[in-house]
Amino acid sequence: MQLTLTILSFLQAPAAVTACEGECIIGITSAFLGHYTSAVFTTLQTMANQINTQLIPVPARQQNPTQYFDPVLEAYNLIAYVDLETAIFPRYFHGKCQDANGVDPPGCPNPDCPRVCGTPGSLVHFYPTLTSIVFNQTTGLLANLTTPGSKTYNQVLQAVMSDANEGQRKRLENLSRIMPLRSRGTIEARGISDTQHGLKNIMQKLPSIMLHACGGSGLSLCSWEQPMKEFILQYP
After folding, report:
1. How far apart are CA 48 and CA 59, in angstroms?
2. pLDDT confidence of 58, banded at 50, 70, 90?
3. Would residue 138 count as lying in a domain?
4. What's the total number of domains in the chain?
5. How far is residue 159's CA from residue 203's CA, in Å, rounded to a whole number?
6. Residues 6+ apart with CB under 8 A from 60
7. Range of the domain at 149
8. Domain-located, residue 1
């Protein structure tokens, strides 16, 4: 599976704006999506490897098990940008920093605005909150897409069950001469149940695997603090 996240370019010089709106919103949201490519891939690859080694009998194991998550990635690409933009702007960072008299507090709008509002300076001042918003939104979206009963979960389940059943069939063929037909049927039924239960358990690990991919509770590997602050402050 090739991880392809649909993002907009964020390397171009931003247009002049008075607050984080328009190109500023697009650029910052796209930048975080691009940075998260590695963490998303690492998380899904880890889960795919667990599926391959724990649920798929050896005769049917995949050389590239991350393809199980193709439906998840396809859905993620369609909705990740809009959901992340909304989580940052305007759900948390929005409005002007000015007081009732129309006066900007010290440090606002740039470079370090100590009031939650919709300016680059506010995003920089509350950067730990910003990184938490991005992590929680990205992780939450992936968790929703891998929740039992969802369309994408069912697509993953179908692919996993197909390979598991094929591997089980090949394994039982080797035992057919010494195993009664009734016993084979019991093993097949148990195998289906174990695979379904095992997949649920692996999917439930997604938040913890994602947190590990991002360096733990401090999100040290999903912060990019210095370059992102510099990038954000390009917008006036």
Report:
1. 17
2. confident
3. yes
4. 1
5. 15
6. 163, 164, 166, 167, 170
7. 23-96+104-232
8. no
CA 52 from centroid of its chain's CA atoms? 20
pLDDT digits (tens, 9 = 90+) for 135-187: 999 999 999 999 999 999 999 999 999 999 887 777 666 655 555 555 555 55
Query: What pLDDT, on a 0 to 100 scale, did the predictor assign at position 177?
Result: 58
Q: Give the per-residue pLDDT at 236.
A: 79
pLDDT band at 11 (very low <50, low <70, confident <90, very high): very low
| 8 A C-beta contact, residue 120 and residue 99 | no
pLDDT at 26: 96
Say which DSSP state 20 is in: S
What are the angstrom distances between the C-alpha of 149 and each of 5, 66, 145, 146? 24, 20, 9, 9
Could you tell me if residue 10 is inside a domain? Answer: no
Residues 6 or more apart whose CB falls under 8 angstroms from that of 154 comprise none
pTM, entire model: 0.86
Q: Which two tokens stand for residue 184?
A: 């084979």
Q: Report d(CA 77, CA 230) in Å as an integer.
A: 27
Distances in Å between the Cα of 18 and the Cα atoms of 127, 137, 166 are 20, 27, 60
Question: For residue 67, is it within any domain?
Answer: yes
